Amino acid sequence: xxxxxxxxxxxxxxxxxxxxxxxxxxxxxxxxxxxxxxxxxxxxxxxxxxxxxxxxxxxxxxxxxxxxxxxxxxxxxxxxxxxxxxxxxxxxxxxxxxxxxxxxxxxxxxxxxxxxxxxxxxxxxxxxxxxxxxxxxxxxxxxxxxxxxxxxxxxxxxxxxxxxxxxxxxxxxxxxxxxxxxxxxxxxxxxxxxxxxxxxxxxxxxxxxxxxxxxxxxxxxxxxxxxxxxxxxxxxxxxxxxxxxxxxxxxxxxxxxxxxxxxxxxxxxxxxxxxxxxxxxxxxxxxx
Length: 288
Hints:
Largest sheet: 3 strands, antiparallel
Organism: Protofrankia coriariae
Number of domains: 2
Pfam family, one: Phage_integrase
Domain Tyr recombinase: 101-282
Domain Core-binding (CB): 1-87
Protein name: Site-specific recombinase XerD
Helix content: 40-55%
């Protein structure tokens, strides 16, 4: 089976477990679309048919399923990986143009509401989990992938070792509020099932907390703070990056802290947000 052969090859690739799951899921969706679509030629063996199919799939994602440009491009990246590992090579298909707007981040007012809710939250584990992407800029998979040995606490701060995409490792200084949250959780963690294991964040059964479990915790805290359902770990990561860029931090440092290898990736945080555009209109003259 084509998908089985791909996932077997993907399992040997030096990528994170989250990337493997994401790519496998997106390739599965692409292959299902191929099976239900009338195509010119065989896109699994012919390069021209491959290109036509991928372009048609891009149009399907954009116009039928109404996927956002980043979602479309992520799907195309997975499809390119599929074709690369099966020997046909990536398709010749342009990526969907990205909007020139900064990623969604919390406003200062919303961030304060979130932080106050975290401070009130009864679970030290959940509080430390929620503050990790906010103060260390971690992706959700990076957050749940942390081990105890990745956290080094000093008298005042410390650092956290983050295992990112492509097996890249970066060190991020621990901000004082995150240090306090880690300290509180590590003290309670000793009494949890599975405390002898390596995972920093445990589930109730003593295993490593899953990305789905972490997502639920963060969105639940955000909802309790009165924020909308779109406040995810990735929004907290965007808030971290946006705060640094707007605070005057150079892009090289921001890229290093986020685990990006290309400056172009972090330049988007210099773009205006939707709130910036709305506030700009307040300067227009009205006759009221």
